[in-house]
Amino acid sequence: MAKHKGRAWHSRLLAAALGVTALAAATSVWTAQADTTGGRPTGGVASPDERDRPAAKVAADIAHASDAGDRGVNITIDDGPDPVWTPQVLRLLKDEGVKATFCMVGTQARAYPDLVKQVVADGHRLCNHTVSHDTAMDTKSEAYQAQQILDAEAMIVKASGGVRSQYYRAPGGAFTPYSRQLAASHGMRPLGWNVDIKDFEHPGADTMVATVKREIAGGPTVLFHDAGGERSQTLAALREVLPWLADQGYSFGFPVR
User: Fold this and answer.
1) Which of 4, 78, 79, 199 is the catalytic position?
2) What pTM was estimated for this model as a whole?
């Protein structure tokens, strides 16, 4: 999986998360000795009960397949929630009768908890997309990777009212063996993608639709974004792609766990 090109929005997210990172560094001993067995970490942004994950460990390899079978498609929506674009994406998905997986940035989830709750109420699944969307986190220490994943999960759980992420997607595909095992030990299946419409480059809705039509035969998981910039092209592409996929005999599911 090729890493996404840098975006100014990522820098703003990273800056916004510095306070969280500093707090974690000062108060979270667990980040230096992350528990990959699923035990209770202590300290950090949230209370221990918000971090405790009784969920069983899941597979640590990167998932691409759909639980809807060979003709299944997984719609995944990254980087939100966003107060402008997420509600429009949710309305479109509801109109089309499609469930999706929302890969949420921790600071965004913390800022817009009502949107996180709406995503859950509409029957979609949550995915942890780290605190600050650092696409270079695979070059950072294990303590930093643990902080990015576990602090984000605490934010998402709190924002959702107690619903945990079922997946972990590394920003830009910056997985490491350590981050995959850590996420899996906390019940989050590492999640990849097969079709990247590159909507962050604003290539035009027609180009995005053509990418899906050309590449969907190669794998079921399609990557869209509901934050990180102006997303009218993404909405237009979704509006055309979803009924086209249904017409082609595809069904919509969730990534395997």
Assistant:
1) 78
2) 0.83
